[in-house]
């Protein structure tokens, strides 16, 4: 299906960014690249009710066994009336070298999405430097396929035709890569129905270094991911979502800030390319500084809810 050409640009005031290692309320979701609470992967998955919300959580769900390690996800499931719900996979940041699905920001988002009626699944993926592109993208694709399997769809009461992805920083890159991988129907295989990118890099070619002024931290994300010594000598064409866009790609929400580690020009270029291909997209720019899940002030949360309500 060829989507109508929809491309909106909106600017929101800067939201409150709290201490990265503080206990995160749903009203202040923060990306915590280095403050992760890691779980023992040998723990048997358990199902428990979140007090007073009707939400249930299930931890350490192994979706893949690869290279001698187990890759897992968690689940936050909304109170159900029996009708299958849409699902969102949540992809953490950390520059591809750190971060975890167990980070407080990911767990807070997991609960928040479940409270909004979505089954949410924070996902682990292999990290650099031991694993580089395309290992992480392959992991996310496998996670989508695992959730779409009829057995898992029934287990979690989700609609396998409505699986989306929400990513922060490095996780946003993976979200955009999976969104633009392949072509055709978005309800089969590892295709996704909707994508939300917070501070994602869309273009990893040397020419993209001229898009705004990338922070050293942003450059290091790409160098870690592609195992390159310098941006100038790194051919990131295959890893760049912007080079794989086609008209069948899913609706995409791009979020960034005016003073992001990743220049807002990355999101603007991606939005322009999606529009040129006829893919529904929306660009939200938060005033001031902020990166990844730090951008989730009230306006951005409202924009995400509206976007998913329409497209997922």
From TrEMBL:
Residues 73-274 form the BD-FAE-like domain. One of its GO terms (molecular function) is hydrolase activity. InterPro entries: AB_hydrolase_fold, BD-FAE-like_dom, GDXG_lipolytic_enzyme. Residues 1-33 form the signal peptide. Keywords: Hydrolase, Signal. It comes from the Bacteria. This is Alpha/beta hydrolase. It comes from Microbacterium pumilum. The lineage of its organism: Bacteria, Bacillati, Actinomycetota, Actinomycetes, Micrococcales.
